[in-house]
Please model this.
Amino acid sequence: MLSIKNLQASVEDKQILKGLNLEVKAGEVHAIMGPNGAGKSTLGYVLSGREGYEVNGGEALLGETDLLDIEVEERAREGLFLAFQYPVEIPGVSNMEFMKAAVDAKREAAGEDALSSKEFLQRAKAACKQVNLPLEFLKRGVNEGFSGGEKKRNEIMQMMLLEPKLCILDETDSGLDIDALQVVAEGVNSQRSDDRAFIVVTHYQRLLDYIKPDFVHVLADGKIVKSGGPELALELEAQGYAWLDNGAEA
Amino acid sequence: MTEQINEAEQINEAINREYEAGFVTNVESETFEPGLNEDIIRRISAMKNEPEWMLEWRLKAYEAWLQMEEPDWAHVEYDKPDFQAISYYSAPKSMADRPQSLDEVDPELLATYEKLGIPLEEQKALAGVAMDVVWDSVSVVTTFKENLKEAGVIFCSISEALQEYPELVKKYLGTVVPQRDNYYAALNSAVFTDGSFVFIPKGVRCPMELSTYFRINEQNTGQFERTLIVAEEGSHVSYLEGCTAPQRDENQLHAAVVELVCLDDAEIKYSTVQNWYPGDENGKGGIYNFVTKRAVCHTNAKVSWTQVETGSAVTWKYPSCILKGDNSIGEFYSVALTRGAQQADTGTKMIHIGKNTKSTIISKGISAGRSNNSYRGLVRINPKAKGARNFTQCDSLLIGDQCGAHTFPYVEALNPSAVVEHEATTSKVSDDQMFLCQQRGLDAEKAVSMIVNGFCKEVFKELPMEFAVEAGKLLEISLEGSVG
Model:
């Protein structure tokens, strides 16, 4: 589903990704772990096409589509979803209005009719319930005055409504207490399916207790330096990232 | 189908009635030659078959205007209009044709409604809105007058009011905005050609929203509308005003005067969506919009001004409330969007005279392109206005880095018990917000328009429903091309 080959990218002329390779198949969950500053968040931004993230080489295909060739919104409509570490507020724009527009934009790109308001509302309500957000959150401004946990749950709700092919969760666990973490993880798990893949970017193993990955990769200094099964995450938890200094940095 | 036909018939009837009322008889001289002098004013008055006192009133205004100087304190720059190059009277061509059915109404006029998304046939369906349509300087189509009449409401052109209800006009005209109030108000008083007159009798709640669509069409024609709304004791009315103008090369002056008289316990809600032609990217050819709007609120009366301003090359406009009576309330909700080379200097004046008077000001300025957007507001608490309160919130939103937002708040609190609050913020459409929207699949223009609409929500919610939708659409259209 996602094929990244030798991806290189820089921010303000500083090289962050230095030849990253990653293959993700439909139905799989990949965890990407690593020390701060390794380029974990950069990967999500580069794949989604954020301004200021310059691609210097390599390729990234989502299915048949060359992601690096198209605009941010086109990547989104192709089925790429990024759950933000720090979701931003859009005052006065209700969650409903925002998500209806997003869902319709995606449907339009796929040649489908816009959802009726009624149909959309039903879906939105169901998603809201699933992530344990009161229905009034649909009427509130996007992330406006939400707590940290509510913002993250709101991200998952958006993911449910957009039904993406590939979800990238960028340190979704940061700032969450254990209850919120469980709710978020349950939401993600409910969305796992054979035709959808996840990349879970996290600093801590904790999240992976709830979202069981199929593969774990260690990202350090702009590259994947080690890959393995779920047991790798436990190893990292026990040993920390200090061992990388000998391997990757040398 | 039958309903539609009936509707069309009703409209035709209204059209014909309008013409029968015939305040314009000499259809040959459709447009006056450019120039302004006493004779022109006499001719305007004669064309409209006005009572003698009206002519004298106009001449007095003209005399005052000659002694006045064009104000230059506003934060706008423009070439001063040449008042001798303007034609002060023009009637649309189709007036001469006397349309017998809707098919005969100027198709361009109908096309304009289509463009606005409000075809004439459907206007009735729009929640019982009655329309008094102004095409250039003279009313062409007036609908629903009969229904209003049943309720005792008068809603007609001011020319017609001068024929049918001269005493009412005489009693209130100029009582809120006197002839010599300011330069443009004086000019308007001298040469106004048409506008609306609304009279809501004591205790009556106007059964429908009253709406006027303005348009400028003829080239080199200054538009000087005069609107007078009188809400008698305990009455209630919601008035909607909206306008568009086609592209043109010459700068066009639009100097309207709106007077609201809100008697004891009455309420007037006045909503405007303004979309005059803003000119090309350098502002060339855009409309100059120099408007005087003011309300007098008597005891326990309430006036709300809600405006969405997106057009004009230069805007100079301060809908104001004189809170004369005790416990009266004034509100001002404004969205002003400028782009390209547009300049807007707009805001309000709240003059607290009565005891326990309250005013609320919510102003949202959005600047894009190279435009300049200024809020100018005066809150004055007179010495006897015990217990007066004001809350002002001025928010500016910048799109891009070449535009300007300015705030000029004036507060004069002359009574120690007054509570005056002022909040102001300036923000930018952030990269983070844009990225979030785009990552969810919205293109850049949709993202900006959504963020801007959200920013304006507090004001939009004050607009009548269908107007709010239209205003949102208008912002979206106006923002097209403002993001790179």
Q: What stands out?
A: Residues 2-21 of chain B form the longest helix (20 residues).
